[in-house]
Amino acid sequence: MNKAPDDANNFLFTRICELMETPQLFLRSSLKLSDIAALLGVNSRYVSESIKTHRGCAFSQFVNSYRIDYVKQQLLKYPEKKIAAVALESGFANEISFYRTFKSLTGMTPREWLQMNVANKDIS
């Protein structure tokens, strides 16, 4: 059972998200929980607990959700770009983990997602 986040936990989570979004740390394939903790000057356990409290997932899932969102934006912006190239740019260490993660988060392959979203973009 997760306890309700307190002000310190909310502040920490805000700082974690800022690091993920502004310098886009998720693009580093070697990014570790300890890297975020060191940048914020806190214990890794606090970072992990904050993510678990706010997003209900582990650090790797949290980072991968940022990566998948980035991939989606890039695919819509540059549909001619190779999916594998975008996957590697987004911080995934290899194509296999990218495809597995994309499918688990979206329920479809990147190509299926792109075809559906390009079609929807053309309609609107």
Write the layout of secondary structure elements.
Blueprint: H1 7-21, H2 33-40, H3 44-55, H4 59-77, H5 83-89, H6 95-106, H7 110-123
Helix pairs in contact: 1-3, 2-3
N-to-C CA distance = 43 Å
Query: Could you say which structural class the secondary elements and strand pairing correspond to?
Result: mainly alpha
Looking at the chains present, what oligomeric state does this protein adopt? Answer: single chain
Helix count, DSSP H or I runs of 4 or more residues = 7
Strand count, sense and barrel status of the largest sheet are: none
Describe this structure in words.
The chain has 124 residues and is mainly α. The protein folds into 2 domains: 7-62, Orthogonal Bundle (Arc Repressor Mutant, subunit A); 64-123, Arc Repressor Mutant, subunit A, CATH 1.10.10. It has 7 helices and no strands. Helix 1 (7-21) packs across helix 3 and helix 2 crosses helix 3 (44-55). The longest helix has 19 residues, at 59-77. The chain is elongated, with a radius of gyration of 16 Å. The model has no long low-confidence stretch (mean pLDDT 92).
